[in-house]
Amino acid sequence: MVYLVPGWSGPRSGPADLLVFLADRIAAAGWTAVRSDLPGRGDSAGDFAACDLDKMIESIAAQDGAGQRVLLGLCSGGNVSLGAATLGTFSGGLIALSTLPFQPSRGKEFEQKRAMKNLKNYAKKALSPSTWIRLFKGEINTDRIKKNLTASEGKAPGERNLKDSKRDIEKELLQWKGPALFIWGDGDEEAALARQHFEKLHQAGMGARAETRFHTIAGANHNFYGRGWREELSWMIVEFLNRGNANL
To answer: What are phi and psi of 202, to 5 degrees?
Structure first.
């Protein structure tokens, strides 16, 4: 059984129905695929603004299912999946897509690169008249933009960072012995540093007793919007499931 976990803000369908596409491909290959809304998202109960990473992890770890179970998470959903795996309820394997390091582990270089990426995106949007119309109507969250343009994403002074965990998940991951698959697109400007980070974790012990793979899909962006990228992504996932989890 494969549980698909969406990103921080999105519903269980994923961006442009990416998780629907992947679930269909996984099911066609003979696996049971389950897509779950995180607390406060989609059809799930809860307060969106009050749901932190640990609550998301708890909600996924509590999912029912028989036999070995595999977690597949996109972006922050990958962090949720990694955190749930450390609780010991998912022994079948991990698949992390476009997943970034956990908040406390992001170095200065990573945060500066993220800030530059956001600056480029906002510069493009500033060229659109519709952006200025929305700004004058008060429909744009300028405080959020200010945060995204600093070198440190997350909380302002005195503000809690909901994407942080009370646990040291990356330290706990050094005890993870199951198979794992990490995939990014090299069109994602944060992918290279993220891959380097998780490769170092692997070298330090994460997944040391099982096969851990790292892949980068040429040209693909963060959410794998292109059809060809999605086909390549789904092929890698199904191949990993068939090769590493034949008894699921």
So the answer is: -65, -45
With 0-12 / 13-18 / 19 or more C-beta atoms within 10 angstroms meaning exposed / middle / buried, residue 75 is buried
pLDDT, tens digit, 9 for 90 and up, residues 94-109: 999 999 998 766 656 5
The H or E element that residue 104 is part of is none
Q: Are 70 and 39 in contact (CB under 8 A)?
A: no
- Confidence (pLDDT) at 147: 54
Spell out the alpha helix ranges (H) of 37-137: 53-61, 76-85, 108-126, 129-136
**Could you name the CATH architecture of 2-104+167-244?**
3-Layer(aba) Sandwich (3.40)
Q: Given this model, what pLDDT does residue 138 score?
A: 73
User: In a 3-state reduction of DSSP, which class is residue 29?
Assistant: coil
- Contact of 102 with 124, CB cutoff 8 Å: no
The full set of domain ranges for the chain reads 2-104+167-244, 108-148
Distance CA 238, CA 246 (A): 11
What's the whole-model pTM score? 0.81
Q: Which residue, 211, 212, 209, 217, is CA-closest to 198?
A: 212
What span, in angstroms and rounded, lies between the C-alpha atoms of 41 and 4?
14
- Statement: residue 247 has pLDDT above 70: no
